[in-house]
Please model this.
Amino acid sequence: MKRGLLFWNVDTQVDFMEPSGKLYAPGAEQIKPALKQLTEFAAHNNIQVVNTADFHYPNSAELSAEPDFILTFPEHCMADTEGAEYVAETKPEDPLVFDWNKEYFSLDEVKTHRNVVIRKDAFDVFAGNPYTDKIVELIAPETVVVYGVTTNVCVNDAVIGLARRVDKVFVVEDAIKELPNIPLPFDKWEKLGVKMITAAQLDELLS
Model:
């Protein structure tokens, strides 16, 4: 695998991406061509991909029958449902999966699997899965390319967390989509040194 460069696919799951999904981000289906391009680019260039995924049970703290759509949301990405599956454009090939509620005695395999799935029970993957920090430490990327949904919730938390741990963080601006009524994080990202690129600029990362 190409060392130093890591792709980070945030929550591109049916419930967020499809109009029929339980927590659809309006217009999310429009980024599917860019997502497909990223997935194929990673495969062609043997780039490792960390794929995060909401994976909730009914007692999850972010789920509510009366959600405010800022800190709480209706049921979505429930464990072992179709809504929790990745869309076809990003479906990881033969992934190594880390559940947030299971115990793992060794994480060393993360260095040999091109696709890693980190399931989480919080917006922030670093808070929602106890193994995320160690996984990033073991992969030890110099540059991380982030994309997925949603821009102003889980993508934002991933970007902030990665910016604290990795030298260079890029976000693919035509491969993200936000939820309504929540502020966008672009100014915050810029202050953290995060760079925006397009899917068409991916080749520049390999030069």
About this structure: DSSP finds seven helices and seven strands in the chain. The mean pLDDT is 96. Strands lie at 2-10, 47-54, 96-98, 115-120, 143-149, 168-177, 195-197. The two ends are 16 Å apart (CA to CA).
